[in-house]
Design brief:
globular, single chain, mainly alpha
């Protein structure tokens, strides 16, 4: 079979470039032989990977032991595995940008599609430069509890980040992908009426200052929320620090709250009718491409397997990675089901299966599980996702009632579901898992939530951290948005009315349209 397949491929290689389509058509037998050969090649590759894992017995699932020592060669191998794992996860997270642009463009109107795409590309570009220059320094270098003070322009950085064994530049690229996610989230609730120059200004504020400085409080090596509950730090009697494994608060709540501030300052789009004002005509304008939005959601879900499992920064913690990936999957599934069924029995669209709510429900489940994914059981992940689906559904109805125009649901999906996910750790942490590390898991001090007999302490720490970051982010963001909106056009945050009522942002701001009718 393989020899005949090789012969077929050789014949294809000999065919002329200008051969007709009929000449290039493969027979059914040829297609089967090629397909089976490719599948066999993938199986062979998998067997090679398993063989390598067998050669390194126990290394990919060895629990970390305080008294255990490793040779320089063993440490080098583990650091290499952890670095490759971190980079692969970074690439997955960065790939989420494709999902974001498709999701946001799909939910937007046709006449603002180019604007959405260009804003997302610009946010990525400016985020990379700013996170290299100042953002990473503010967020991850040592300083004090509120801000890092070293490593600007990645100058003077150590070889590896803290005790992870991961090279500092590998850690930078992973964290840049996270920062880029936050900057992309912020535009979701502001679609359709934000000037491109205004977007430039607030993006600089978000990616250069708001995200990294406030993020330092929870993720910095000496952040005051991360150190909370320990001797000599804030609230030592609490005995618990704030935990956010992969960013329900640091990434998603920050992004969602900034979106809320922008939506409030901008006000609704011209012509936007709310349900409370007109039950028949009110509600979000229809998405211009639900297939695009649905595909974007699945790309985001795929990228989340880098977002959450990758936050171990350790390929050695095999049990932790598997548990996180499973919890991530189950929470997304549960969130989508809740958000699909609630509109069917309740609300303005009773009796209808609603695709946009289903899409946002799965995303809300992913957002919510991002914080507790390491410490909860699969059953806990399902409950967290089920509640997240309800949170995004009723959160969307609340925004509609408050006349807040959020075209993609960024505020309920990322902001409100992020808060719920952060608090859920204090309820659902199952008391079995402690911390990940470069040599594996250390479960000597497991995290236990209220429902597993752990009391209220973890919940209190989560509540304090979530409340502080949410309030601080909103106050700084609302000031930033107000300042930008007071600037003269074209730097003003909101576009001129003729851009909305006329040809739309695509032609007004960019001189082009996403779709062209062929003659």
């Amino acid at each position: 079979m393989f020899s005949s397949t090789l012969s077929t491929l050789k014949q294809l290689g000999k065919r002329k470039p200008n051969a007709s389509p009929a000449t290039l058509t493969l027979s059914k037998a040829d297609r089967w032989r090629i397909g089976i050969t490719l599948f066999a090649g993938k199986i062979l590759g998998l067997l090679v990977v398993l063989a390598v894992m067998k050669v390194l017995p126990g290394m990919l699932a060895t629990p970390a032991k305080a008294a255990e020592t490793y040779s320089a060669h063993e440490t080098s191998i583990m650091n290499s595995i952890n670095t490759v794992w971190t980079l692969v996860a970074a690439f997955l997270v960065f790939g989420m940008q494709a999902g974001f642009v498709m999701l946001e463009a799909g939910f937007a109107r046709t006449k603002e599609t180019v604007n959405v795409l260009l804003e997302c590309i610009f946010d990525t570009a400016i985020c990379g430069i700013l996170f290299w220059a100042i953002g990473y320094a503010f967020m991850f270098s040592h300083g004090n509890g509120f801000i890092g003070k070293d490593w600007f322009f990645l100058s003077g950085v150590p070889a590896t980040y803290e005790t992870t064994g991961v090279p500092i530049l590998a850690h930078w690229i992973f964290q840049f992908a996270f920062a880029d996610t936050t900057s992309t989230i912020t535009s979701g609730a502001m679609i359709g009426r934000t000037s491109f120059r205004g977007d430039i200004l607030y993006s600089i504020g978000v990616t250069g200052f708001i995200y990294p400085i406030i993020g330092h409080w929870a993720w910095g090596p000496d952040g005051w929320l991360a150190m909370m509950g320990s001797t000599g730090n804030f609230l030592p009697s609490l005995g618990q620090g704030f935990r956010d494994f992969a960013g329900s608060t640091v990434v998603h709540t920050i992004g969602g709250v900034i979106s809320l501030a922008g939506a409030l300052v901008l006000g609704p789009r011209i012509g936007r009718i709310f349900k409370r004002d007109d039950k028949e005509k009110g509600g979000l304008p229809p998405a211009h491409s639900l297939p695009l939005a649905a595909v974007g959601a699945f790309i985001l879900w795929f990228g989340w397997y880098g977002f959450n499992p990758g936050s171990t920064l350790s390929g050695m913690d095999a049990d932790g990675i598997g548990r996180i990936a499973t919890n991530t999957t189950l929470a997304a599934c549960a969130g989508s089901l809740t958000a699909m069924l609630l509109p069917l029995y309740f609300g303005p669209n009773k009796g209808k299966y609603d695709l946009p709510f289903t899409i946002n429900g799965l995303l809300a489940g992913l957002v919510a599980i991002t914080c507790p994914c390491y410490w909860v059981s699969p059953l806990g992940a399902i409950f967290i996702g089920l509640i997240a689906g309800a949170v995004v559904y009723y959160g969307t109805l609340l925004l509609e009632h408050l006349r807040i125009d959020d075209p993609v649901g960024a505020v309920p999906v990322h902001g409100i579901a992020g808060i719920w996910g952060t608090l859920s750790l204090g309820l659902f942490a199952c008391g079995k898992y402690g911390a990940t590390g470069p040599t594996g898991a250390d479960n000597s001090a497991p995290v236990k939530g209220l429902f597993y007999g752990g009391g209220w302490d973890v919940f209190k720490a989560q509540l304090i951290g979530s409340a502080v970051i949410t309030i601080a982010t909103f106050l700084v963001a609302i000031v930033l948005m107000l300042i930008v909106n007071k600037l003269p056009y074209p730097w003003k945050l909101r576009v001129e009315p003729e851009a909305e009522t006329g040809p739309g942002l695509d032609l007004f701001e960019h001189g082009s349209s996403a779709y062209h009718v062929q003659d």
